[in-house]
Amino acid sequence: MSKQLLISLPILLVFIYLCTSTVAQSPAQAPSAQAKAHAPTAHAPSAQAKAQPAVQPPIEVPLVQAPPHKALTGPTNVTKILEKAGGFSVFIRILKSTQVINQVETELNNSNNALTIFAPTNDAFSGLKPGLLNSLSIEQKVQLLEYHFLPAFVPISSFQTVSNPVRTQASDTYEYPLNITTTGSIVNISTGIVNTTISGTVYTDNQLAIYKVDRVLLPLGVFAPRPRPPAPAPAAGVKKPNKDESPFSPVAAVDASAGVSFTRNGMVSIGVAFAAAVFVWSQF
Question: Which N-terminal residues, if any, form the signal peptide (predicted)?
């Protein structure tokens, strides 16, 4: 009997040790339902990550830094600025082929004129309908380019106070309207055909500002011309002049002096009647 107890005792101790080890390890191996509910999943992005804005504010740090002393470093070269920034080769090619770039740089360097340029990227031109640029005449290409120029230096912060429609280097604001509005720090541009935003600053030196836009600004005057509104009708009660009637014609003279003539004729008639009465009275 004692031998059986001695044999069973070690077995019992081993069994108790194994049970204790299993209970101690079970919480680590089996996480609770509460822990599973709060554990993030790899395929479920957080709400904060989904709430990113669709349009980013423009980058105000210029891609090309202006020289510290522009007057000592030579004239402004818009082509070199765009080439150094990169991504504007199509815009540069059209500026050169139309010779608009010569006019722009002459105005900047031979006078105190200021200029703001909206420079479309290569991707912006790639987004146009195939063959659209080739279908334009030289005059239309010039108008398209000048539509991207404002005849003034406009800092990025001053777009909040511009008056719409904004005047460009193209024709009048009826055929070539351009509206610029701001939403916070975002600068929105609308042509009536295209809506885009300024995505960054390419260059600024207090005389010239170049901003990057991700779409080509298509003006109504080239791509959707509209008839001009009719001239206002003449005011009521105003006599329409006869093209065959001179202001010095006899008809006009009679019309102008009708009242005077009537008065004069009346006085003559009274005078004749008085003379006749005197003559008759003298006969008696």
Answer: 1-24
